[in-house]
Write a structure and sequence with these properties.
- A hairpin with a 2-residue loop joins strand 3 and strand 4.
- This protein is α/β, with parallel strands linked by helices and 260 residues long.
- It is built from 6 helices and 16 strands.
- Helices cover 18% and strands 28% of the residues.
Length: 260
């Protein structure tokens, strides 16, 4: 089944596999965000994470991937055991400089640093995994901007909770056509009531900062530490008069988007 936005030009086919893991075609290349392919289970650590649902498709069904956009490597809900194994099959993996120091074969992008893969320019952009100063506990994370001649501009937020950073990115980049936002109000009680990803209210403010960009929310289900549902997110967009801007993907089904 395919859902399509009409009256558009260049298109992007997005397949939400689960959690933060999205496969999409862009610039004649196949991209994958934050690989997570494990079955449900627990991940012990300083804070134990609980995976509740598995991927919509197995890792053996993903097919060839040209590049992985890895927002960070230090949390199992963004890179689990099967995801780490998967990285060895991909020629290009882009992430944070910290991840590049920890993992072989990873290219680290500082904020606003760009690399070119095929006809696509990928730029690392700021992200903050919690409130101000969260890096000391959450570690460094990154988002990504993808651009190419004749292609819509795509923003992948990574695990970012800061609307101010979204505004800064929009101000610097200009028009953003499609934004894949990591949502869910993730909260492991590390920072009290401060969420470590966008929640329903802050996601609406991020959407406003992004103008008329199509908003594709992911990483809002499948783990025990998400404190808000996608239904709650959708209601917030409706109440704010932004329902038409939101496209919630169904895991396992292709969503076809394009610039408007």
């Amino acid at each position: 089944m395919t859902n399509t936005i009409e009256n558009t030009t260049a298109t992007i086919d997005i397949l939400h596999i689960g959690g933060p893991t999205v496969r999409f075609r862009y610039g004649n290349l196949t991209w994958l965000t934050d690989p997570t392919f494990d079955a449900p289970g627990d991940y012990p650590g300083p804070i134990t994470l609980h995976k509740l649902t598995g991927p919509a498709i197995g890792v053996d069904q993903v097919g060839a991937v040209d590049a992985v956009l890895l927002s960070h490597d230090q949390h199992a809900d963004n890179l689990d055991n099967s995801g780490r194994e998967f990285l060895s099959t991909v020629e290009r993996v882009l992430s944070t400089p910290d991840a590049a120091a920890r993992m072989e074969g990873v290219t680290g992008l500082a904020n606003w640093e760009s690399v070119r893969i095929g006809d696509v320019t990928v730029t690392g952009v700021p992200a903050l995994h919690g409130p101000e100063g969260a890096e000391a506990l959450s570690g460094v994370v990154t988002g990504f901007i993808l651009q190419g001649a004749g292609l819509p501009t795509v923003y992948v937020s990574g695990d970012n909770a800061s609307v101010d950073l979204v505004q800064r990115i929009a101000d610097r980049i200009g028009r953003i056509d499609v934004a894949i936002l990591f949502v869910g109000a993730a909260n492991v009680d590390r920072f009290g009531d401060s969420d470590v990803t966008l929640n329903g209210r802050s996601a609406v403010r991020a959407a406003a900062a992004l103008g008329d960009a199509v908003i594709v929310p992911v990483h809002g289900e499948g783990w025990g530490h998400f404190s808000e549902s996608l239904d709650y997110l959708a209601r917030n967009f409706e109440y704010a008069g932004r329902a038409a801007q939101l496209r919630i993907p169904t895991p396992g089904e292709t969503l076809t988007l394009a610039a408007r």
